[in-house]
Design a protein that fits this description.
mainly alpha, two-stranded antiparallel sheet, 2 helices, 2 strands, globular
């Protein structure tokens, strides 16, 4: 997951624990934490529970336009 303008520690609890100390980009800390929760839940639901594909993992999201899902081989959606 790539969060535009976020630093390496952005997808951790540090955003919540040290609110304002971590660069989160244009989404800000609250929206960044919501995105992280939603993307992690979508990944686990799909890969561990076998639920149907979640739109968050299939392309750009209108809810989180500053986030992109990326694999080691390629981008699953356009980078923000």
């Amino acid at each position: 997951m790539n969060l535009q303008g976020g630093e390496h520690t952005t997808p951790t609890d540090a955003v919540w624990l040290a609110k304002g100390a971590i660069q989160t980009g244009p989404m800000g800390p609250d929206r960044t934490m919501a995105a992280i929760r939603d993307y992690v839940a979508a990944f686990f639901d799909e890969n561990l529970q076998g639920k149907s594909k979640n739109p968050l993992l299939n392309g750009l999201s209108p809810i989180y336009p500053d986030a992109a899902v990326i694999t080691g081989e390629h981008t699953l959606c356009d980078q923000p």
